[in-house]
Amino acid sequence: MNPLYNVFLYILIGMCFICLYRVIMGPTIADRMVGIDIMGILVVGITAIIALKTDRMFILDIGIAWIILSFIGTLTLAKYLGRNKLNE
Amino acid sequence: MNETISLILIIIGILFDLFGCLGLLRFPDVYNRLQSATKCVTLGTWCILLGVFAKYGFSAIGIKALVSIPLLFFASTVAAHSLARGAYHYGFPMWEGSVIDDYKEPVATMKQETENTGKPSGFSK
Questions:
Q1: Between chains, do A37 and B79 touch, taking CB under 8 Å as contact?
Q2: Contact B48, B13 (CB under 8 A)
Q3: How far is Cα B18 from Cα B119, in angstroms, rounded to an integer?
Q4: How many CB atoms lie within 10 A of CB B9?
Q5: Which residues does chain A have within 8 Å of residue B25's beta carbon, measured at their own beta carbons?
Q6: Do B62 and B38 share a domain, yes or no?
Q7: How is chain A split into domains, by residue range?
Q8: What is this structure's pTM?
Q9: Does B104 lie in the same domain as B55?
Q10: Do both B43 and B74 map to the same domain?
Q11: Contact assignment for B90 to A30 by CB distance below 8 Å
Q12: On chain B, which terminus has fewer CB atoms closer than 10 Å, C or N?
């Protein structure tokens, strides 16, 4: 196992904290939603690097499920922001 | 050899992620933040997954990484587009240094049509 993988993980987790800063401090609702969306994409990268590190393949499944859940969540909240009815 | 290619791809991806997150931290406006962060972070994660594929080749892990690349691509871009549209319709202000706003005119015409016909036109609200 390459020790560089740990460094990659630390950098990615630090970037997740940047997104959390935007979620907490964001001046508008849309900023917080952008932070959550970007953090969801970063988590997929984290799962990929954990899969590289541990040689387990089921961890990438978590990433795929996370993509779909984050997509649906962001889409729903964006519909709510556009003041649409949810069944349109 | 495969390991080297995978490491290079992952480092490129992490650099893109880092720049995208810096844009999320530093830009003044929700639209600027959205465009910087979404594009850079999507490409960065794309590169990381491609690095996983480069290490394992056509085995189970590699195929899973390869499958999640188009999924991530379409999901994140569509989500970001709809988020920007929703933020615009909600009326969040743009940064005061913004130069051009091309979406103002279509939205105005759509509102006009809605008032004239009495029912909401397809994609305005």
A1: yes
A2: yes
A3: 46
A4: 20
A5: 18, 21-22
A6: yes
A7: 4-81
A8: 0.85
A9: no
A10: yes
A11: yes
A12: N
Within a 10 A sphere around the Cβ of A45, how many other Cβ atoms?
A: 30
Residue-wise pLDDT tens digits, A12-52: 999 999 899 989 987 888 888 889 889 989 999 999 999 98
Instruction: State the best of B68, B110, B124 to mutate against chain A, taking most chain A CBs within 10 Å.
Output: B68
Domains held by chain B: number: 2
- Tell me, yes or no, whether B29 and B83 share the same domain: yes
Q: Which residues in chain B have their CB less than 8 angstroms from residue A29's CB?
A: 90
Quote the domain boundaries for residue B115. Answer: 98-125
Does B52 contact A52 at a Cβ distance shorter than 8 Å?
A: yes
Q: Tell me the pLDDT band of B122, cut-offs 50, 70 and 90.
A: low
- Give dist(CA A78, CA B2) in Å, integer: 41
Interface contact A75-B79, CB threshold 8 A: yes
- Please indicate, yes or no, whether residues B81 and B23 belong to a single structural domain of this protein: yes
